[in-house]
Write a structure and sequence with these properties.
Blueprint: E1 4-7, E2 12-15, E3 25-28, E4 33-38, E5 45-47, E6 54-56, E7 71-76, E8 79-81, E9 94-100, E10 103-110, E11 113-120, E12 127-136, E13 142-155, H1 157-160, H2 164-167, E14 173-176, E15 179-182, E16 192-198, E17 204-208, H3 209-213, H4 223-227, E18 240-250, E19 255-266, E20 273-275, E21 278-279, H5 282-289, H6 294-311, E22 315-318, H7 322-342, E23 357-358, H8 359-369, H9 374-385, E24 397-398, H10 416-431, E25 440-443, E26 446-452, H11 453-465, E27 510-511, H12 512-531, H13 535-555, E28 565-566, E29 572-573, E30 583-584, H14 585-593, H15 602-613, E31 615-616, E32 619-620, E33 623-624, E34 650-651, H16 655-664, H17 668-678, H18 687-690, E35 698-701, E36 712-715, H19 720-732, E37 735-738, E38 741-744, E39 754-761, E40 764-771, E41 780-785, E42 788-789, E43 794-795, E44 803-810
Parallel strand pairs: 40-44
Antiparallel strand pairs: 1-2, 2-9, 3-4, 4-5, 6-13, 7-8, 7-13, 9-10, 10-11, 11-12, 12-19, 13-18, 14-15, 15-16, 16-19, 17-18, 20-21, 22-39, 23-24, 25-26, 27-28, 28-29, 30-33, 31-32, 34-35, 35-36, 37-38, 38-43, 39-40, 41-42, 41-44
Helix pairs in contact: 7-8, 7-19, 8-9, 8-10, 8-19, 9-10, 10-11, 10-12, 12-13, 12-14, 14-15, 14-16, 16-17, 16-19, 17-19
Bound molecules: beta-D-glucopyranose.
Beta-D-glucopyranose binds next to helix 8.
Length: 811
């Protein structure tokens, strides 16, 4: 069942009922100010950090779903309704929500009145614009009351939802004309406040939630709206809100617009006040003046569209598969940018209070956005590298606001350092900007110890190479990519963190997955070293990589597939000798991507085992058989009921590893099949089962052992976005940046007769046509560049040209 449709021309998903299986959301904001915006106008806003600088409240895990948002109540005679249906839930005569690139438009209709709500965050301002357009479609004059309503968060979202003994006394506001200033804690240590304003004269306002909503009413039937008149309340403590009352007269056929603005304003410390205890409002007034007319809002909205047009023009495919085009050209790249902005902080599943930026997450996300925003990717790399420890290991997370490592979690996740090599190599292949390797980066943010980025990469590599276990495989530490495989934890007490309990640096437990990762990125590191003339070090690195390949082939091979790990007793995990959890997906994908066993048939065997033992109609499960008992020696992975999350769920993040691996052994048909099974766009028709948004990936789909097989969870903030884009754009469609130009190496279904790619690369636009006349899955027979035949499959870097045409014939 579908709940909407794709409008590709406008790059929108159009939702046609407010009753979606879960709230289906969008993200507003591109730089520092962000909003989450659901199809019923739910969600919240924050500046830079969803935990520390939250502007509005949201109630996670609530019933009904999706409580808290920017709500507009329309009182038309006796009927009260919202354009987005929530929170009043009056049945609408018509409803659509168009989620587009950085904006959403909700249109509701009731009793011949239409309300259109456009929401977006201008490219370079710290505010969310909500423009409401009311149109009288009836043949008689309408007198309407329009009320706005948002609930302010007292900045620190965690404190806001726990520390009531203090917070019920701190709230402060000020109202001047149509502008509500939320200034809680401004008198003391804060130098920022929020504004909520409208560009028209108001009939009244409210800033006290109890007054607006009524003591026991709730947002579904606010007192003030029922009465049709604001109380002009000024809040003192309790719950500060912002509400405006506008009186609207509309002749038949007439329209009127209202521009609401919710903004974040910061003053320099010495300019906080314009008079004793009078807030300096200058920057707020400036901000408001930039959006106080329709024309100004139109211009800001156009700028946003141009921004996305430019971003999404860097890689486009034109194929016969409209769903593939839609994924690659619009939604996958859009999701990659959202992971760039949010990491794993704020979604409808991530509360914005829990996690900072993950070290490995951020490095992997970069694979998906480096071609879109290379300059910002560069900054991100430096920020990440600054949190590394001197011995080459890393913090597992860092805070976006302070950019410091998160000491509460610490380090000891032994895959983390290798992802730094992965993302730096990706950056270099994309940009050719080798100067980044000389960039001085701190250790644990201590600038006095800064060394060039290249040295950081070397320490990453060396850390893994010198922390090996009894089988000469890398020690796993607290966990590797799979945060829930905790082989050094042994937790028996409820509530203990599986990641930080127990001895982190266990001397025995090893990871075959990290071994595969080491081989893949060790090879990339060696080729980087050769490329910059450091042949001696390249040879040493290659020797270490070769040793690791031998260790994997020896102790990391189970006969039909790669072992997953060895536990703290040196017993194998993910082996046929195990009772449960005999085969895991991660080492099969990573080892084959690294090229291990490609020449001796182990790679083919491992992938066959994946197909036979892990595959389902909704994607490849993480392991089989699912764990039915808690295994104290394995940790969190066995804490989940069978079929969920890491315990045999379909973890979308590592499905593309298998797609990539299949291309390594030349299986274009299978690679595409793997891709399609988890791709939300191909699942749109079964949205009632999948439940999460059909336009973005979710982290996990319930596996075949789960009672809700096929149900998605944790949409938006997942490394799936970056890995799917990498798998599709580089491994399947086969346009791979190298240090010396674009390589064309497609691996596609045999019935794909060809497609075209437009790729902007190092300042030049490449038009690449791939022809597949003989229906092969892999192999380039010939290539011409601007009509000239070229040997091999690397397009030489265009020196003086801005436009290059390439024709590639497979065979
Ligand atoms: C984490 C990733 C981790 C994955 C698998 C996600 O929630 O953000 O860092 O690799 O789970 O455990």
């Amino acid at each position: 069942m579908k709940y909407g449709y794709f409008d590709d021309a406008n790059r929108e998903y159009v939702i046609t009922t407010p009753r979606t299986p879960l709230p289906w959301i969008n993200y507003l904001g591109s730089m520092e100010f962000f909003g989450l915006f659901s199809n019923t106008a739910g969600g919240y806003d924050f500046y830079k950090d969803a935990k520390l600088l939250r502007l509005t409240r949201y109630r996670y895990n609530n019933s009904p779903y999706d409580c808290g948002g920017r709500y507009y109540y329309i009182k038309d005679g006796d009927t009260v309704w919202n354009p987005g249906w929530q929170p009043v839930q009056t049945e609408l005569d018509a409803y659509t929500c168009r989620h587009g690139m950085g904006y959403s438009v909700i249109t509701g209709k009731k009793n011949d009145l239409e309300a259109e709500l456009l929401a977006f965050v201008p490219i370079s301002d710290n505010c969310e614009i909500n423009r409401i357009k009311l149109t009288n479609l009836s043949s008689s004059k309408k007198e309407i009351d329009l009320f706005s309503y948002i609930e302010f968060c007292l900045w620190n979202a965690e404190d806001d939802s726990t520390n009531f003994q203090r917070n019920f006394s701190t709230g402060e506001v000020e109202v001047i004309g149509s502008t509500i200033y939320h200034k809680t804690e401004y008198r003391e240590r804060r130098r920022h406040y929020a504004i909520y304003t409208v560009n028209k004269e108001v009939a009244g306002f409210d800033t006290s939630r109890d007054e607006f909503v009524g003591l026991y009413n709730g947002a579904r039937n606010p007192q003030v709206v029922a009465e049709g008149k604001s109380h002009n309340s000024e809040c003192h403590g309790w719950a500060p809100i912002g509400s405006h009352h506008l009186k609207v007269s509309l002749e038949p056929g007439a329209s009127e617009t209202f521009v609401f603005l919710l903004g974040y304003v910061e003053n320099p410390k010495d300019q906080k006040f314009e008079a004793p205890n009078v807030v300096n409002k200058k920057p707020a007034i400036e901000m408001m003046s930039k959006y106080d007319t329709d024309a100004k809002v139109d211009k800001a909205f156009d700028d946003l569209k141009v921004y996305w047009d430019e971003l999404l023009s860097k890689y486009t495919v034109n194929s016969e598969d409209e769903k593939l085009n839609r994924l690659v050209n619009i939604w996958n790249q859009y999701q990659c940018m959202i992971t760039f902005n949010m990491s794993r902080s704020a979604s409808y599943f991530e509360s914005g209070m829990g996690r900072g930026m993950g070290f490995r997450d951020s490095c992997q996300d970069l694979l998906g956005f480096v071609h879109l925003v290379p300059e910002r990717a560069r900054e991100r790399i430096i920020d990440i590298a600054n949190t590394q420890f001197e011995n080459g290991s890393t913090y597992h997370q860092y805070q976006p606001l302070t950019k410091r490592g998160n000491a509460a979690i610490g380090g000891g996740f032994n895959d983390d350092p290798l992802w730094l090599i992965a993302c730096v190599c990706a950056y270099l292949r994309e940009t050719g900007d080798f100067s980044i390797l000389d960039e001085k980066c701190a250790f644990d943010n201590d600038e006095s110890k800064a060394t060039p980025l290249l040295d950081h990469l070397d320490r990453s590599f060396t850390y893994i190479a010198t922390n090996l276990g009894p089988h000469a495989l890398p020690l796993i530490g607290r966990a590797d990519w799979n945060d829930c495989l905790n082989l050094n934890c042994f937790s028996e007490e409820p509530g203990e963190s599986f990641q930080i309990t127990g001895p982190s640096e266990g001397p025995v437990a090893e990871s075959v997955f990290i071994a595969g990762l080491f081989v893949k990125y060790g090879k990339e590191y060696a080729s980087l070293l050769s490329r910059i003339g450091k042949e001696d070090r390249a040879k040493e690195v290659t020797a270490e990589v070769d040793k690791m390949v031998a260790a994997v082939e020896d102790k990391g091979w189970d006969g039909e597939w790669f072992v997953r790990a060895y536990d703290a007793y040196s017993n194998p995990v993910g082996s046929k000798v195990c009772e449960e959890g005999q085969i895991y997906i991660e080492p099969q994908g990573m080892c084959v991507m690294a090229g291990i066993g490609v020449e001796n048939g182990k790679a083919e065997k491992a992938l066959k085992s994946v197909e036979e033992k892990l595959d389902t109609k909704f994607g490849i499960t993480l392991l089989q058989p699912a764990y039915t008992k808690y295994h104290v020696e394995l940790g969190e992975i066995t804490s989940y009921p069978p079929g969920y999350k890491e315990n045999a769920g379909i973890f979308c993040h590592n499905n593309p590893w298998i797609a990539c691996a299949e291309t390594v052994v030349g299986h274009g048909n299978r690679a595409f099949e793997v891709f399609k099974k988890t791709c939300p766009i191909y699942l749109e028709e079964i949205s009632e089962i999948h439940r999460t948004e059909p336009y973005v990936y979710c982290q996990m789909v319930a596996g075949c052992d789960a009672p809700t097989f096929g149900e998605g969870k944790n949409s938006w903030l997942t490394g799936t976005a970056a890995w799917t884009f990498t798998a599709m754009s580089q491994y399947i469609l086969g346009i791979q940046p190298t240090f010396d130009g674009l390589m064309v190496n497609p691996c596609i279904p045999s019935d794909n007769k060809g497609y075209k790619i437009k790729r902007t690369y190092r300042g030049c636009d490449y038009d690449i046509e791939i022809k597949n006349p003989n229906g092969v899955e892999k192999g380039v027979a010939s290539m011409t560049v601007d009509g000239q035949a070229v040997d091999g499959n690397i397009i030489p870097i265009a020196k003086d040209k801005k436009q290059v045409s390439v024709v590639v014939t497979m065979g």
